[in-house]
Please model this.
Amino acid sequence: MRAKRLVAVGVTAFVVGSVASVVAGPASGETRAAASFTTVIDNPLFPLPIGATWVYRGMRDGVSQTDRVTVTSHTKVVDGETVLVVRDVAKHGTRLLEKTFDWYAQDDLGAVWYFGEDTATYGPNGHVTSTEGSWTAGVDGALRGIIMEADPQVPDGYRQEYYAGYAEDSAWVLSLGNAVTVPYGRVHHVLRTMEWSPLEPDVVDQKYYARGIGIVKEVAVAGDQEVAKLVSFVTP
Model:
């Protein structure tokens, strides 16, 4: 326990010391709001072809979980832009835990922007117990953020989302060119990032993105033990 706490303190201290640079970064204040957007998302590290499906397995909140992420053919107008709708369904066995619809668009430089989400958590009886975490860019002061840069480089920092008090995730690029083994297989040319939010200051996650696939692994390096690894990836 002591060793884990020391890791958490060290990582959190680094993140807190870096927040100012992220807040002043390109994703923080709509400094690129005039960019044109498309729902054709072909960023090599975060591609979203219509019909693609990713399946992840891991642990969250102390229970096993399977996530199925699907790029739908649906679009939605958010903050004046047409965005692509991606569905994420989390289950424990056959029990539905959470269903989320995320909204993305790609700008003219190739960066993928996150415009918000509509999320619902379900109880054992199948009824919605919470919609906490839902937010929409352009509503109640919420701002779109960058989920993947066009050309990520170490040590870039960027804000992924901003809805004060509800959604304030930021990311930093830690390394490029990694290789990672997950149930899907061994993947190369992997980008590793760190994610943190001032709303959960003791929680730090790392994510791994593979070219042509997207996220292949997520793991908590501070806070509750959580992990998700790619099991399958199918494109149309």
